[in-house]
Amino acid sequence: MGCVHVYTGDGKGKTSAAVGLGVRALGHGLRVCFIQLLKPPDDPSGEIEPLRKLGAEVFRFQGQRPTFTLRSEKERAELVASSALAFARIRQVVSSHRHDVVIVDELCPAIAEGLIPEEAALDLLKMRPPDMEFVITGRDAPASLTEAADLVTRMECVRHPYDSGDTDRPGIDR
Description:
Elements lengths: L3 E6 L4 H14 L4 E8 L8 H7 L2 E6 L3 H4 L3 H24 L4 E5 L1 H6 L5 H10 L5 E5 L5 H6 L2 E5 L19
Parallel strand pairs: 1-5, 1-6, 2-3, 2-4, 4-5
């Protein structure tokens, strides 16, 4: 029986935990799909190529969280359209039954920002095959999602080098 995992909170490590689970699954011969939302187009995320090389199917829908960076209605409209395409791909991946593990990185903020309807995400959990592991990451997980999950981990930031002005480091923070 597959589980729904939610990695949320303001601490570092949500995507890393999900990627680690994906790598472990690949190491055991499971079929993994990693879908990443809301990452800037120029974000050099270090997890993408290794996942591909290990055999994961990877989809990346780029864009930035509206409350962080968008300055115009046009930018928001583009992000809404991209999010609709992303959600259609997520539904397709789940309904195809071709994967044992599906990881949707940054789904929580996409819901919190109103880019993906919360009810649609909950419906997705209901339609997934019972043996599929479904992993969701991101800050601001809605209560309904954590209630529907089998495993919930809240990452808590106690201290981080960002607090003293350090920038993110390739291979460590991204």
